[in-house]
Design a protein that fits this description.
The complex is a heterotrimer of chains A (323), B (308) and C (268). With 323 residues, chain A is mostly helical. Chain A has twelve helices and two strands, in the order αααββααααααααα. Chain A has a single domain, classed as MetI-like (MetI-like fold), CATH 1.10.3720. In chain C, helix 3 crosses helix 4 and helix 3 runs parallel beside helix 6.
Amino acid sequence: MEKVFSKKNDRKFDPDKIFKMGAVVAGCFVLVVIVLLVFQLITQSYPIWEENGLSFIIGTDWNAADGRESFGALPYIVGTLVTSALAMAIGVPLSIGIAMFISDAPKKIGAPLGFLVELLAAVPSIIYGLWGLYVFREFFMNSVEKPLHNTFGDSIWLFSGTPFGLDIFTASIILAIMIIPTVSSVAREVMKAVPQQQKEAAYMLGATKWEMFKLAIFPYSKTGLIGASILGLGRAVGETMAVTMLIGNATGLNAIPGSLFDPSQTMSSIIANEFVEASPAGLHLPALIGVALVLLGIAMVINVIAHLLVTRMLKVKEGAINT
Amino acid sequence: MSSLEKRQEYRALFKQNVQKRLIVDKIVRIIIISCVIAAIIPLGSILFEVFKNGIAAISIEFLTEIPGSVGSGTGGVGPAIQGTLIVVGLASLIGVPIGVMSGIFLSEYGDNRLARSVRFFNDVFMEFPSIVLGIFAFLVIVLVLGHFSVWAGAFALSLIMFPIVARTTEESLKMVPITYREAGTALGLRKWVVTMRIVIAAAKEGMVTGVMLAVARIGGETAPLIMTILGSSLFFANMNTPMDALPLRIWRLSMLPYESAQLQGWGAALVLIFIILGINLGVRTLVLHKKETMQILKTLKEKVGGKN
Amino acid sequence: MTSKTQTTSDLFENDSEKFKMIAEDVTISYGDIPAVKNVNMKFKEKSVTALIGPSGCGKTTFLRCLNRMHDMTKNAKVEGKVMIDGIDLYSKEIDPIYHRRKVGMVFQKPNPFPTMSIFDNVTAGLRLNGVKDKRILNEIVEDTLKMAYLWDEVKSDLKKPAVELSGGQQQRLCIARALAIQPEVLLMDEPASALDPIATQKIEETITELKKEFTIIIVTHNMQQAVRVSDYTGFMYLGDLIEFRHTKKLFTDPKNDLTAKYVQGQFG
């Protein structure tokens, strides 16, 4: 084809080349943005690293008042990790249960159910927050937190704080609900990727459905399921609004929770709460940008791992066992 | 080789445990169904509460007027609705072309190392916390200009949008049979004409689905708007002043200690969820039967979800 | 019943021997399309029955119904009766698990559990049945791997993941896995299709040996294989069982024109 049209292409402007250039530039846009973004975060948070060094990460003080400025990000790192871990602990088993049900149900039931679960992903974070604040909080405080506190408050430290409903427990439950659509739909995909012959092998041996899952599906899709969970973790770590509205927004040392019923603060919620008021002149803004940098670092590591695991699992499926 | 007797002996060692295993199976089944119910209840409750509480706030005045004085329960969320439409529209103007071209790159010129890394980083970028993107927009636009800016908000949202559009465009284009391209080339058309006229025409439906779902996704975003357009009680004035948006308005209202403000918050939530779920349900029910759209939704399901 | 193709069979007419499995009027359809129509077959204990026919004739579909493997196929429907030791396999009161313990199955493609070791693959079914004694497990693993002619190749390395075996070895591992649950019936769906000639020969030897204790039903489209290993052969065509007789008689003196054409290699 090149030869046939070579005469036309003699013009200096080769539209094909320009078009391709445009496509390549647009494709590379994401790379440029990532580089610029990381660069900006580093340079703009530089003052806080210069001032505090790595003790910014392990410091627990947080004071933005003029003259007494002091910033340590540890409480928020802890807050993020604790809420995300709790959300995983609650959300991942639920999601895998849902994925098991939908992947195994007849299409007539499975498809609409899958659709409903996905609708959970379409609900904006701010609406989870609103619902959490005015509906879920009261229910949860009165029918879960208080009974737990009254029964175990003295014996188990986890339940020792005063139930108020704006605490890491409530925030984690909302987070858990929010990661369900992500984790369950990826889990469903990787479970579906298990070849039918594997299931037949298990049934042939006389396995019940549950045993079939244990023999054929879980071992085969383990990597992908772990990937799905980590993807959920990534989502939980970066989640902002709903958490901001429910976590109680403590700062400094107070944000390190002593029990499930204590308020805390996550990296994203401290940014949402304080960013607009922070003055670019002092250290407050660089400190918040530093928090964002740490948040991005953690989120990126988690997501890269998750992507590699899920892709590996789906690749294994193609070249797996059959000769 | 084992004799018949020996195998009888082995068989005798088998536990008569089928009954027990079937009971375990039933229990697991019940647990699994409870998981499904545990996910459906919050969804049902959210939709029910938003509708029940929100419908009471809705009126023509509520949809069109500026907020009344704090706590009065008068006025409405007109500027927020207007602001959301403006910022989402502008974000689409930036995000859709970049996303579509990037998708074309991945699908039509995507068989090389550069494209593979673009694809990978595109996926990773999609998972960036959206508040970080807001900070980025703040740093490169608001801080440089010295004032809050509608452009900054649109830019932040476009950063959320374009990787989604890129990925769905790629998926849709890849589903167009290679014979279409061959036919176009055989007619003597240039590659860019083939791509724009034939391939994109064939993949239109999937691409539109992707764009619409991306619009629905950014319409609910709050965090990146906080530090870019800030929020306002007034209608849009110009690009260089703060502007309101529905998610921001909901946040503000929900933080106020007045019943009337909460009620307005629910009303704004109803408007927002009506727009977003409307787009979602519309796209899904109108085009769900199409094969390529199913594929797009499958991709989206994995890639798009959590919002901040 | 009126439109049913008459099966040519001179088998078992005044035969008083015991039948391990009996299929009565079995019809299997996917959606509305029948893949197997009104098949009647009896399988004698300790014998090998081969099912032959061109691809798409329904032989694999029929074989799978003998173990209720269609339960997992979403739109498949099985009508008729399948009896094992006089009990209806499709009776609603009994969970298929009870029957599947008696029936081992080997599939066309080897499907070992890829993440498990050789040892764990063979013992997977035993563990389901609550056999935990290490000594017994070792004994059964050795026994069954020997029966599947795999022992000598893997005995030094039973902890190796199953995926690292060659295709032929994987298939023999699957045979061992099926034998380990000590079944009474063994269903084999073209077990040699993925194998090289040497492995095929070994598997055929295994089948001949296993016949002394098992009731074996094998699907094959290799006619020589059917002649070599089976006592009875059923020829299926487009979902009908055309002819079902002693293997020798079917191949040397087919009664039905279709059978004659097929065994002479005129189509297939």
